[in-house]
Design a protein that fits this description.
The chain is α+β, with helices and mostly antiparallel strands and 370 residues long. The chain has three domains: 121 residues, Rossmann fold; 150 residues, ATP-grasp fold, B domain (D-amino Acid Aminotransferase, Chain A, domain 1, 2-Layer Sandwich); 56 residues, ATP-grasp fold, A domain (Dna Ligase, domain 1). 27% of the residues lie in helices and 22% in strands. The protein has ten helices and 16 strands. Helix 1 links the parallel strand 1 and strand 2. Helix 1 packs across helix 10. 42% of the residues are buried.
């Protein structure tokens, strides 16, 4: 039990369109962490933003009955870097929830976008995964593509719009999607002019900015996971899709029941039936994108392959569904080994530094105010 006694807070849920997917990922991770000897504290963020804990939250069956609205309310105490239940205990104080590590597993907004990494820094807690800046940048499709293009990584160019009429004049066909979202939620392929404004309206339901980019001719999807240490790039998969665009249903519906081992997953071709040269290129670009964004933990880099053989980085997911463990398993890295590596990486890096200077420079007369 290599993580024996380590107290890990697994935080999941949140005010994100990917709320339920986050629950599934967390309920996959928590029993494996316990199998490694860790003491796991489930921290569930409800859809209205309350932070609750209860031992039953470690079981997916709890959430299949209904999304919980009751549990011990958890308060964040920034001064001490601790979590505490707000319910009265001895002497009328809440019970402290000592943690050694925070493991964020929120997909999408209010989590994967760097907000939980920032919370861990404020609490002076080590946390698994990317830091605040890298996570926030990767979540922003438009601005991350600008950075990737600047270092020579091929991306599909796009533009930002903030209103239904903002995409007028775009050369069709185009893909319209929320700039900061995931799981193909709010994404549309627009081939006729009449569908452009409604597609932007749909995407604006999930973000205040919408990215409009040319559709890649005959695009096939390819995905590769990356981590910081050891074997850095995983095997490559080709997700199967029912339409021109990979949908939420393609990604999450119809997999093997209960994650059954030994059964082929109809949602993906793994490993992808591609040439050795293309596989090598995908893995190389995935690592380059991961490093350019200064990421940590494990991320999944999603690619588009045109019918002419052109390869583009589409987006980078810093907390991919199920932590993309299936890609690592196909590469010879088991789920337990992956989690152990991620936790140990976070513990070795430690919490974010404290840049404050000692004393009061105002009292010492060393600073001049306006």
């Amino acid at each position: 039990m290599s993580l024996a006694g380590l107290r890990v807070g697994v935080i999941f849920g949140s005010r994100s369109p990917e709320h339920e997917i986050s629950i599934i990922t967390a309920c996959q991770v928590m029993p494996v962490l316990r199998g490694l000897g860790a003491v796991v504290l489930p921290l569930y963020l409800t859809k209205d933003g309350r932070l609750l804990t209860d031992p039953s939250f470690a079981e997916l069956s709890t959430f299949r009955r209904q999304l919980p609205q009751e549990g011990a309310e958890v308060a964040v105490v920034l001064g001490t870097g601790r979590l505490r239940t707000s319910g009265a205990g001895i002497l009328g104080r809440g019970r402290e929830l000592p943690l050694d590590l925070l493991f964020p597993l929120v997909h999408g907004s209010h989590g994967e976008d760097g907000t939980l990494a920032a919370l861990a820094d404020l609490l002076r807690l080590p946390q698994v995964g990317s830091g605040t800046m890298g996570a926030a940048l990767a979540m922003d499709k438009y601005r991350s593509k600008q950075l990737l293009a600047a270092v020579g990584i091929p991306v599909v160019p796009g533009r930002l719009v903030g209103a239904p009429g903002g995409a007028t004049g775009a050369e069709l066909p185009v893909v319209v999607k929320p700039n900061r979202s995931g799981s193909s939620i709010g994404v549309s392929l627009v081939e006729e002019r009449a569908g452009l404004a409604p597609a932007v309206e749909l995407a604006l339901q999930f973000d205040s900015e919408v990215i409009v980019e040319p559709a890649v001719p005959g695009a096939e999807d390819l995905n590769c996971a990356v981590k910081r240490r050891g074997e850095r790039a995983s095997e490559v998969e080709r997700p199967r899709k029912q339409r021109a665009l990979l949908s939420y249903q393609d990604k999450y519906a119809g997999g093997p029941k209960g994650g059954a081992k030994g059964k082929a997953d109809p949602r993906r071709e793994l490993p992808a039936a591609i040439s050795a040269e293309l596989r090598s290129k995908v893995r190389e670009l995935a690592v380059l994108a991961f490093d350019a964004l200064n990421l940590g933990g494990t991320a999944r880099v999603d690619f588009l392959l045109s019918d002419a053989g052109d390869l583009f980085v589409n987006e980078v997911n810093t907390i991919p569904g199920s932590l993309a463990f299936y890609l690592w398993e196909a590469s010879g890295v088991g789920f337990a080994a992956l989690l152990e590596e991620l936790v140990k990486e976070a513990m070795e890096l430690g919490p974010g530094g404290d840049p404050s200077l000692p004393g009061n420079l105002l009292a010492e007369g060393q600073l001049l105010g306006k």
